[in-house]
Amino acid sequence: MTGHEIKIETADGPFMAYLAVPEGNSPAPAVVVIQEIFGVNQNMRAIADDYAALGYIAISPDLFWRQEPGIQLTDKTEAEWARAFELYKGFDVALGINDIQATIDKVRVHPHCTGKVGAVGFCLGGLLAYLTATRTNADAAVGYYGVGIEGHLDEAAKITKPVLLHVAELDQYCPPPAQAQLNSAFANSSTVKVEFYPGCDHAFSRIGGEHFDEAASKLAGERSQALFKKALA
Question: Is the whole-model pTM more than 0.90?
Fold first, then answer.
């Protein structure tokens, strides 16, 4: 598996994405790895590498490029948190989804891609994964602890492909009323599955993060891989 940066062209200009490709030249489905508020940092690249190791072509687009290209923050200092929230507040969701569609289009025609493309996102990316399901032609989407999904439930009727949402019970960014809205909206859905993680907080799957929970992260990963294995076959 080798990872490197590639350029994606849009009508508004080019942006970079981190691409990780499995060993060998066998046809493979692709997964778009959608960033947290820290940019395409070491953690996002590691997730892309992990998906490539599982046999997927993985690509993580720099969605903050319109504000500042190449952002790679950590969650370790107050200054980085402040910058991350500044970028989050200045982020244009609609344009971000356009950039995700451009990423899907780019990786779908990769020489070794089967044409099937899923998306997995974390935090801000969890919301964007949900909106990827409502606004793009992705074949499947997985959102980890998405922030603000409950504000976009009016788009749920547009979902036609499999979606999995991982929700942390103690997540202050998705409090009990929001969780209840998600549960109610998708309780009888044939396309959207909401999985709740008791005792877990926001970013329970961020390795090295304050709220990392190894068992929950492993379970969420297995559930995500099961969805992709079926939806992207």
Answer: yes
DSSP codes, 34-85: E--TTBS-HHHHHHHHHHHHTT-EEEEE-TTTTT-TT-B--SSSHHHHHHHH
Type and span of the H or E element at 15: strand 13-21
Other residues' Cβ atoms within 10 Å of the Cβ of residue 171: 22
Active site residues: 171, 202
Q: What is the mean pLDDT of each run of 10 residues along the chain (233 residues)?
A: 89 97 92 98 97 97 98 97 97 98 98 97 98 98 98 97 98 97 96 98 96 98 98 96
As a residue count, the chain comes to 233
Say how far apart CA 173 and CA 204 lie, in whole Å. 13
Q: What is the DSSP string of 110-168?
A: STTEEEEEEEEEETHHHHHHHHHHHHS--SEEEEES-SSGGGGGGGGGG--S-EEEEEE
Task: Using alpha carbons, list the distances in angstroms from residue 95 to 68, 79, 90.
Answer: 14, 26, 12
Structural domains in the chain (count): 1
- CA dist 171 and 106 (Å) reads 34
Which domain range does residue 110 map to? Answer: 2-231
Rg (CA), the chain: 16
Residue in the block written with tokens 């080019």: 14
- CATH, residue 33: 3.40.50.1820
Give the span between the Cα atoms of 121 and 211, in whole angstroms. 17
Picking from 24, 183, 43, 227, the residue whose alpha carbon sits closest to that of residue 33 is: 43
